[in-house]
Amino acid sequence: MNEVTKKKKNEISTDVVDFTAPEFAGAGFENVVASELAIPFLKIASSQTPEIKKSNPKFVEGLQEGHIFNSVTKEFYDHVVVVPSFFRVRGVEWYPLGEGTGAPVKLYKPEEIPPLVRGADGEDHYMIDGKPSQTYINKTAEYFVLILKEDGSTERAQIVMQKTQYKKAKYWNTMMANQKIETKSGGMMTLPMFANAYTMKGVHEANKKNDWWGWKIDLFKSVNDYSNASYIVNEANTFRELVKSGEIDPAPETQDDPVSEMKNLNPSQDDLVLGSS
What we know:
- By secondary structure, the chain is α+β, with helices and mostly antiparallel strands.
- The protein has a domain at 34-87 and 145-272.
- Helix content is 14%, strand content 31%.
- Strands 4, 5, 9, 10, 13 and 14 form a six-stranded antiparallel sheet that branches.
């Protein structure tokens, strides 16, 4: 009995199904719309990341500080190549770390973010419902990107930049906006956001009081340098339309993973950051 079982295990099956056949394309996913899919976050692992702690149920073997990791697949990288598809800014209201459920209190459009006022305690607070609030609001830059895999495939993901990293978003946006091309009429136009691929990696940063991991962003190459450029552009543009229309609208992650120790960082304090590129 054992010999028969062993033989069967070692046999190479000749009954192989060709899943590239047209009738199998997307089979079974007919009722899975874009909003039913989880959009992973690309995050930089730090000492506070649950996935880096062996005692935490979320622990990922081999993940180290500075690695970029996928919040859904748990894959991690020293660096990752992405094509940005869409950008937006939101204000995310939170309870102080350790209070509440860890979920955001409210989301704001940039123009709806309440003003800061100096409270009786001498600290700055947001004016919410006509009074200084004990909650705080992070102005958050959100990028919807395609991860470019070595096999030529792509994967949708989201990158969030806030607090000390918000200035990196401005840097990246400026880098992309400066990418111009001459039109057939002789004028100049700004290339679409998804015309180029960028490398992302984690870098260690610090100021006089804290240290954390931040993003380093570099232009990699034109999407046209890839053999499947049309596929990448089509995927990026589709992703852009889905987010723009609201069909894909991922909620912010819960606060079980502090991005940095600087949870109440005021915008003016960004100037204190050292080591930023």
